[in-house]
Amino acid sequence: MAELAVNNRDLQVINWKKQLGEISLPQLQGQLDEAEKRGQIPFADFTDVEMLHWFLYRQEHLNRQHDKSARTIKEYERELTHFIEQLLRYSSEIDLDMERVVDGSLFKSLSTRHIRRYQEWLATKSPYVQAKGAYSAATLARKTTILKSFLHFLYEVKYISEPIHSGFYKTSVRKDDRPNRDLGPKEVIQLLDHFRKINHPIVFGIIHVLTMTGMRNEEFCTLTVKDLQYDSITGSYFLDVLGKGNKRRQIPLKEKGMNSIRMFRHARGLASIEDAERDSPLFTTNTGRAYSPSYLSQYLTKVIKESELPFLNFRSSSISSHHFRHAFAIISHLNGSDPYTIMKSLGHEQLQTTEIYLEKILEKERHAIHSWKPEIFGEYI
């Protein structure tokens, strides 16, 4: 990679991460303000690392709550730094045949052919693929979306001169590419019955609350005691949930859902809702700390698999915490809720997302077999 190459590629990666940690948003804003004051081109003096930091943390809205959430920033930073690490570590394997290095910048030196080659390498020859097998279509689509948005941003603000983001192949996810996360009421009831029978209020409570609220994994994990509130008008409790895009929604709690929360906290040895510190986690691990989304998902997958319930043998994949969000959508549909109401309850931005949740059950309900009558096919129907 011409001047960008060093003897130890790991040093490049370490240097990238070190520089990223030393940058502050006010510092970059000051550089932009000074450039504007002097009539200079914005970002002309920025480095690649500074552009990455600015893309991730820049303020776009007057109200910061409308900017990217901490979760989104973390996800974007993880994918983009991984992208950079791979370009630096595997430049030969990816065939980054750069004719010249522009201003000592990796981003400015890339062309559409490099982007295409990187995407092909990522999908077929990268270390992950060699060790664990191919990425799912949804994962490749997510990675491509993040990388494409960043490179498009660099072109839009004129940090790079070519629209290299156009080098990406399309990565649309077909219906058949999506994992089947459908979970119906009978399956959830079997799970709840099992964990109640073996006296496991922890898993019972998690499954019960996730199903009755349709919360996202992270929404559940970040709940605090103060998010559980009482509505004196309706005489019932509700959860004040912070969702994607820092948008809040209020989720009503039925009495039995509230009972499950109380049983969970009692089993964990936590203070009652009335006596607990308001900022303390509503649900905790056995160490007294809030669950992390990854740990919660892995924990539920493990204990549900260990239950060895017969219906699990007929499923193509394991059940994780996200399946109960789908269960909420399906159970709501079976109880007569329309897709728009389900969309608002789940905190989806688009009806299309909710329709994906309901796609398979609607397809089954609309199958022609349901129109068959005994008088046409006799005793064999």
Detailed description of the structure:
The chain is mainly α and 381 residues long. It has 2 domains: 2-177, no CATH class; 185-365, hpI Integrase, Chain A, CATH 1.10.443.10. Helix content is 53%, strand content 4%. The chain contains 18 helices and 3 strands. The chain has a 3-stranded antiparallel sheet with strand order 1-2-3, with no helix packed on it. β2 (236-242) and β3 (248-252) form a beta hairpin. α16 (339-346) crosses α17. The longest helix has 20 residues, at 70-89. It is globular and about 75 Å long. It starts with 8 loop residues before the first helix and ends with a helix. Mean pLDDT is 88; it is low at 1-8.
Outline of the structure:
With 381 residues, the protein is mainly alpha-helical.
Descriptive terms for the model:
381 residues, disordered N terminus, globular, hpI Integrase, Chain A, three-stranded antiparallel β-sheet, mainly alpha
The percentage of residues in β strands lies in under 5%
Q: What's the level 1 CATH class of the largest domain? A: Mainly Alpha
Show unreliable segments. 1-8
**Tally of DSSP helical segments:** 18
Question: Can you give the helix content as a percent range?
Answer: 40-55%
Overall strand count: 3
**Total discrete domains:** 2
